[in-house]
Amino acid sequence: MKSTVENVLSFDVEHWHSATLVRDAVTDPEDHIEDSVEIVLDLLADRDVRATFFVVGEVARTHPDLVARIAAEGHEIGSHGDTHRPLFELTPEEFAAELARSTAAIRDATGTTPVGFRAPNFSVTPRTHWAVEALDATQYRYDSSVFPVRTPMYGVSGAPIRPYPLDPNAPFEERETDGSLVELPLAVFHPRLRLPVAGGFYARLLPTRLLHHGIRSLNARGLPATLYFHPWEFNPSVETAAVPPHKRLVSFTGLSRLREKLATLIESFAFTTAGSVARQHSDRKRDPAATSTPWGNG
Ligand SMILES: [Zn+2]
Predict the structure, then answer these.
(1) C-alpha 145 – ligand 1 centre gap (Å)
(2) 112/25 Cα distance (integer angstroms)
(3) Does residue 148 contact residue 155 with C-beta atoms inside 8 Å?
């Protein structure tokens, strides 16, 4: 039987060649964004599941109809930055400008102002803690960029593994705050070992049994698992042969079985949008009688 805990299903909508390890290795790539998103939309529609799509601003400007269609199918649209540059490469001012541009692009495409943000490469870490202050100064209501285990490319060891109120003065600690931002950290399980089961690379690499075990153990503690994928990961026509083998491991291993794995996850666990889960956690620390919310729809 499915646990009643709702997990977060999310997709980062960027070009397949935007991945950090790949972007310099591919010249003249084919654009597969439309057919990739379509594969994912069909998979979700068949199973009647809503998800969050964190869209790069540039994609919303060049493919506004595609982004409008995702929203029209009942999914939430969040921001994944404007150019997919990790925050490590941006100044606080450049980040604020990226955020504003991506917000405008999404609003133009969908008519709705996004309230959720995911940094490219999970690049909200102690080095870029200023990003939380920048988000806090906007209409954004949640962030889903903290990867609560240190990896060679990103991650924050010791950050909470459950949704928590984001305090701009201490963004990686669980504290009571008056602020309105919620963090949805990416899924790791086991309080000490912190094994990532967050989707993407991890879902491609890990056996289904371990993925399910990780999500089940979070849910057993009443905690949602926040998972991310990329639409291109589900598209067999994405041609990855041009990428040098040593870079292919992280970016492309296990693609062929991912569709099956996601289908099995959806059968086994309850999923919804990031906005919906963030709102549940935000409501918990607010006056339950309050009627007006700053969340917009979904
Ligand atoms: Zn990304």
Answers:
(1) 10
(2) 36
(3) yes
How many A from CA of 285 to the centre of ligand 1?
30
Rounded to the nearest angstrom, the distance between the alpha carbon of 16 and the centre of ligand 1 is: 9
Helices 33-47 and 258-268, packing angle to 10 deg: 30
Distance CA 246, CA 224 (A): 34
Cα 122 to averaged position of ligand 1 atoms, centre (Å): 8
Determine the pLDDT at residue 99: 98
- Top pLDDT among 100 and 205 is at 100
C-alpha distances in angstroms, 200 versus 16, 95, 206, 259, 267? Answer: 13, 25, 10, 11, 18
- CA geometry: angle at 295 spanning 143 and 103, to 5°? 60
Whether pTM > 0.90 for this model: the answer is: yes
Expressed in angstroms and rounded, the spacing between residue 85 Cα and the centre of ligand 1 is 9
N-to-C CA span, the chain? 26
Residues 6+ apart with CB under 8 A from 286: none
What is the C-alpha separation between 57 and 296, in angstroms, rounded?
19
Q: What is the mean pLDDT of residues 33-48?
A: 96
Q: What spacing in Å lies between the alpha carbon of 291 and ligand 1's midpoint?
A: 35
Domains recognised in the chain with CATH numbers: 6-284 (3.20.20.370)
